Amino acid sequence: MGVTMFDNSGAEKVFSGARVDLEPLRVGHAEEMAEVLGDSALHRFIGGAPDTAEALRARYARMTAGSPDPAVQWLNWVIRLRAEHRSVGTVQATVQGGTAEIAWVVGTPWQGRGIAVEAARVLVAGLGAYGVRSVVAHIHPDHTASAAVARAAGLAPTDERQDGEVRWRGELDG
Are 87 and 60 spatial neighbours (Cβ–Cβ below 8 Å)? Predict the structure, then answer.
């Protein structure tokens, strides 16, 4: 998959796929993302409840400030669906020592359209720009949709478990 990267003043990059742009997360995304992520069904496998816009603003402020550990890089993007001119989810990567632990979420109204697959593929392809060589994700064993996204992004399940979730792993070419 070809990934177009745009420099963002030395910070996180914008990655683009056929239909989506991964735009670096900003505190200003909180209002829109509270609506996008407001369905409690999104928490079926991860627990918890949807955050308010105020709670997201506080969380996004912490996330965009960066990891307190200089050996760890927090990278977070909103998934922008170009045709609809709006955010529809998020992707993230925690990078340490050439390995990125990734996650994704797409709002309920946009699920089943291949958006998470495209965003995860774009994310994995773009992580090489951050020195990443290995990618992992942790997925609930019953979450077949997330397993399909991980597989499409080049990850494969391992025998490892963490907090009851299956550890998926993939290696980047290069």
Answer: no
